[in-house]
Amino acid sequence: MEQILNKQKNLTFHPVYKTFTGLESIQHFMRYHVFAVWDFMSLLKSLQRHITCVSVPWTPSFYPSEMVRLVNQIVVGEESDLDQDGKPVSHFELYLRAMEEVGASTKEIREFIKTLDLSKIPAPARSFVSHNLKIAEHGHVVEVAASFFYGREKLIPDMFQTIVNTLKTENIHAPTLLYYLERHIEVDSGEHGPLAMKCLDYLTGNDETLKSMALNAGQDALDKRQQLWDEVLRTYEA
User: How confident is the model over 116-174, as pLDDT tens digits?
Assistant: First the structure.
């Protein structure tokens, strides 16, 4: 567990955030980060597929109704949250709006969404997305839940707060991006994070093998995020 905490700490203070000194640096960051926003939903949908029933004809889930409810709660929040004006929107769509607001190109992510061709993902983000899709499509439910919790829900509040602080300190005008980040800090720390942890605890129980599987998957997810941020920083400085 100590390794997980150290990796999360390193990501919270990654030097990529220090590049946020103007719109150009934010545009560069968002060009790659949007793919992490997208594949987050694949991990979530995989978790929903494992724990709830999404097939027809419907059958009751093998898991307790409490778990089914908490996963569906996260899905509702991520796939149909409310924007600044109180209108339903997915967090992915909200991020695209934020990109357009600051002048970041959405061409690559939109082309990818149309084709789902991994070769269309910019090289710095491709390995990150490939790893998470592999977990989402073929991983054990514990690996999916661990990647979701340790690599996303547990990490995001602190990581995004660093970005928010930078935006405010540098007086960078990006209201939609700021809303997106602050909304995630709010729901991930106050709602989704605890729900995801509860889900993971239930899945692993007292099984040491499953606990070890979860920690390994969590470390892998954090390593991939570290590599992504390293590449974003490297290509910006190049």
Answer: 999 999 999 999 999 999 999 999 999 999 998 888 777 888 888 888 988 888 888 89
SS (H, E, C) the chain: CHHHHHHHHHHHCCHHHHHCCCHHHHHHHHHHHHHHHHHHHHHHHHHHHHHCCCCCCCCCCCCCHHHHHHHHHHHHHHHCEECCCCCEECHHHHHHHHHHHHCCCCHHHHHHHHHCCHHHCCHHHHHHHHHHHHHHHHCCHHHHHHHHHHHHHCCHHHHHHHHHHHHHHCCCCCHHHHHHHHHHHHHHHHHHHHHHHHHHHHHHCCCHHHHHHHHHHHHHHHHHHHHHHHHHHHHHHC
Task: Output Rg (C-alpha) for the chain, integer angstroms.
Answer: 17
Domains and CATH numbers, the chain: 2-237 (1.20.910.10)
Residue showing tokens 């027809």: 56
- Please give the structure tokens belonging to residue 201: 């605890």
pTM of the model: 0.93
- Other CB atoms within a 10 A radius of the CB of residue 68 amount to 17
137 and 116 in contact (C-beta within 8 Å)? no
Q: What is the pLDDT of residues 182-231, one digit of tens each?
A: 998 887 666 677 778 888 999 999 999 999 999 999 999 999 999 999 99
Angle at 94 between CA 9 and CA 126, to 5 degrees: 55
Q: Please tell me the distance from the alpha carbon of residue 165 to that of residue 68, in angstroms, as a whole number.
A: 35
Give the separation between CA 110 and CA 120, rounded to whole angstroms.
Answer: 10
